[in-house]
């Protein structure tokens, strides 16, 4: 979880981290081909301690894909198999892909050809379906050489998944008893300031509440 602080407490911006390591792509595949094989859902996992949602919703995101060729697929004289294959650059292909999966979200995309190196002592927990360059192969092979590098897709996302995390944090902080924070307050923090910060945390959590989160909150309240 990354938090960027600005001048006012309510200007705090919180983002969740996602990653696909490695990004699943066949050796020699173009970026449009690789993205087309994941049209229903981005093949990344949530790294931040939030409860993951199936809903495809976010407010803004910054995504970086590295280790995949930026060359455009060669023309065969046939109609392009998808709009992704008509894009002028790799960045445009990734941008189009993100726009399709997250319509209405502000998305910033970057594509780098250099893969992520995985030299020792990087743990070799990779599937036998990966070759030493981190690309997928059709059949598993005996691991005779370490995976030297992998393509990676990573993103920072401002989305409703953060609402439950911030709400839970606010709930836990509320449970703290003032008598247990004697050393904390003796360091110069006024109890009134602490209570204001707790309230600002609650307000911050509400900034990330979307329709899905709101309905789930109501269901949780009814079950209580």
From TrEMBL:
Q: Which GO terms describe its cellular component?
A: mitochondrion
Origin superkingdom: Eukaryota
What InterPro entries does this protein map onto?
DML1/Misato
Q: Name one GO biological process term.
A: mitochondrion organization
| Protein name, entry field | MSTO1 protein
Q: What is the lineage of its organism?
A: Eukaryota, Metazoa, Chordata, Craniata, Vertebrata
């Amino acid at each position: 979880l990354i938090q960027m602080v600005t001048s006012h407490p309510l200007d705090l911006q919180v983002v969740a981290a996602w990653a696909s390591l490695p990004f699943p792509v066949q050796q020699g595949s173009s970026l449009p081909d690789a993205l087309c094989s994941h049209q229903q859902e981005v093949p990344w996992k949530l790294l931040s301690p939030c409860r993951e949602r199936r809903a495809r919703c976010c407010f803004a995101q910054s995504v970086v894909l590295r280790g995949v060729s930026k060359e455009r697929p060669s023309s065969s004289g046939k109609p392009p198999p998808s709009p992704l294959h008509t894009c002028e650059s790799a960045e445009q292909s990734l941008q189009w892909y993100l726009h399709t999966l997250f319509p209405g979200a502000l998305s910033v995309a970057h594509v780098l050809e250099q893969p992520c190196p995985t030299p020792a002592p990087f743990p070799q927990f990779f599937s036998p379906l990966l070759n030493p360059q981190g690309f997928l192969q059709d059949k598993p092979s005996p691991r005779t050489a370490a995976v030297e590098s992998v393509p990676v897709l990573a993103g920072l996302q401002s989305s409703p998944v953060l609402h439950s995390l911030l709400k839970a944090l606010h709930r836990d902080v509320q449970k703290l008893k003032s008598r247990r924070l004697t050393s904390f307050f003796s360091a110069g923090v006024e109890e009134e300031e602490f209570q204001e910060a707790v309230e600002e945390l609650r307000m911050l959590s509400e900034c990330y509440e979307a329709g899905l989160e709101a309905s789930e909150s109501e269901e949780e309240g009814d079950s209580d």
